[in-house]
Amino acid sequence: MRWIRLLLALIQAKFKTKLIGTETVRKSFRVWISDIDVSVMNHAAIMTVLETGRLDLMVRSNFLKVASKNKWFFPSQAISIQFYRPLKVFQKAQIFTRISYVDAKWIYVEQKIERKGKIIAACIVKNTIKKGRETIPTSEIMKALQIENVPTFKYDLIKTYELENIHMTDKLVDNWDN
C-alpha cells in the first residue's frame, strides 16, 4: 500500500500549483484500513504519509524534475520524529511541509501532521543531495530551483536537533557496549 500512496501523491502533485521559493506545502490525507495497527495508524504508515508530503514539496518546487535531469538523488541522513496523538481509520488530517534551514551541505525539512488544529506528529528531516558519491552544494541546488529566499538562519530547534544527533551517534554507534 505504501507504493500506492506514493504514486497517488506524485500524480496529485503534478496537478497542483507550483511553489514559489520556500513556501509551506499543505497536503490532506485520510487514514486507510491498511494503515491501522490494532486500532490506530501505525508509525510506519505515518512515516509514509510524511514521505508523501516531501514528495509533494519536491514535485511542486520542480526539484524532482531538476534532480532527474542532473542525475541527483537525495538521501536522508537523519529523521527525528515525535508522535503526539493517534489517528484512527478513515480520519482525515493534513501534512505541512517546509524547508526550514539550509547550510552548505544540508537541507532541513520540517513537517507536521495536524487534525482539527491539533498536532498528531512532527518531524525534522536532514537531507543532502548527491550525484554518485559527490555531494552537490546546496547553493547549486537553490540556484537550479530559482529559490532566492533561502532560510539560512540556524534557529534553536535546528541546533538542538544537531546536538541530539551527535549524542545519539555517540551512544548508539560509537559506544554501543558502554
UniProtKB/TrEMBL annotation:
InterPro entries noted in UniProt: HotDog_dom_sf, THEM6_lcsJ_thioesterase
Residues spanning the membrane: none
Record-linked Pfam families: 4HBT_2 (PF13279)
Lineage top rank: taxon: Bacteria
UniProt cross-references to CDD domains, sorted A to Z: 4HBT (cd00586)
Protein name (record): Acyl-CoA thioesterase
Species lineage: Bacteria, Pseudomonadati, Bacteroidota, Flavobacteriia, Flavobacteriales
